[in-house]
Amino acid sequence: MLGADSAKHILIRGTTLPHIEKFLIAGKPAPSVTEVLVLINKPVLAIWRGKIGNEMADKISRDSAELGRAVHDLIDRCIKGEVIEGCSIGEYPARLFKLWFNWFNQEEVKVLEAELHVVSKKKKFHGSLDAIIERDGKRFLTDWKVSKSSDPLRVLQLAGYAYAYWEQTGIKIDDGLIVRIDPVKETVSEKTYKNLWKTTKDFLKIKAAYDVLQKIKRGTKND
Q: How many domains, the chain?
């Protein structure tokens, strides 16, 4: 277990948290931003699973997650200034990483922060954001995605990170950016979000609903 108190309420800069079963805030388990957003029903996923079966859907999901982690790792290492050895990373992840690398160089992006673990003690959640970048004099809270499709709900994930980042630093970032690497078309696209701070209110409403559901579950277990 890892707790917010052990981090002394500061940003964990340039590090990825190890796998942990629970993250504690004030001695109690706290969900991640992505765990909170699981609360949102996505009927398209249910239809997809119904068509191909749960076993195949689980395999595709695992393979996609593994590919995403591999590409993220390469991006993180690049940002930290490490030399990327092509022979040790696999051809497919390397090609996808190169797509991001070309985008990164063309856009003249400056990375201000990378792989930040942020914690909201007030609202009791945490998460790891990919980067905060500067481009054309503006700051963007940024997420790298390896996915063949866009998801309009991803802005809620950025909003959750934005709130926790503000709570810890006092800095409000009002612009969000999702850079999506399509593993099928092998292209890079981006989606910007303005007024990100307004969306934090929507995320906090979902977090409140999540808390209510957890209380109901605990009450049921105690019956």
A: 1
